[in-house]
Write a structure and sequence with these properties.
The protein is mainly α. The chain has 9 helices and 6 strands; from the N terminus they run H-H-E-E-H-H-H-E-E-H-E-H-H-H-E. The longest helix has 23 residues.
Amino acid sequence: MFLGHFGLGFAGKKAAPALSLGLLFLAVGWADLLFFPLTLLGVEHFRIAPGATAVTPMDFYDYPISHGLVALAIWGLVLGSAYFLFRRQRAAANVFGLGIVSHWFLDALVHRPDMPILRGAPYFGLGIWSSVPLTVAVEAVALGVGLAIYLRTTRALDRTGSWALWSLVAFLVILWTASIVEPPPPSASAVAWSGVGMWLFVPWGYWIDRHRAMVAA
């Protein structure tokens, strides 16, 4: 899943107003943000396998540190606890930690059975990626609902608060659409290097949030 993670990040602002949108993106995207650097270091692995699924030609076969359920639970506990120690905001720390763990459950909806608990079997995955129309519907609903919650929860303080948000949404949709309609990438390393660029969404989220304010209850 791609857009759905960002949808959950947007929705998290209502549950934890103290968390910047940048931190929410960091939480829900932590697994992917960790995965691509680890593949470049040779710690985790995937390969290009055209036809692996109807949506993506990538075969994820070794990523227990970034995408294992137990590993994500540990990451969530450690990073959520670190946030609490620095900010003393329990609700925000809980949302941050749970956001990290949420990645496994959203990915398990769309992946074929390749989502690990620890290292090796058993693997889980409902395989929504086997259907392009169903994938589009799930991603669109997840992003749309999350974005609607964020729009009802915050308001733009200036023009930047509007166009920075909508330019991000447009970029995410274009990027995700291109990943489906374009030919398979030339190599796994090319995907990994482009995947590292996902770290840019964290400061982008901070930028958006600095130009928006919470709507009074």
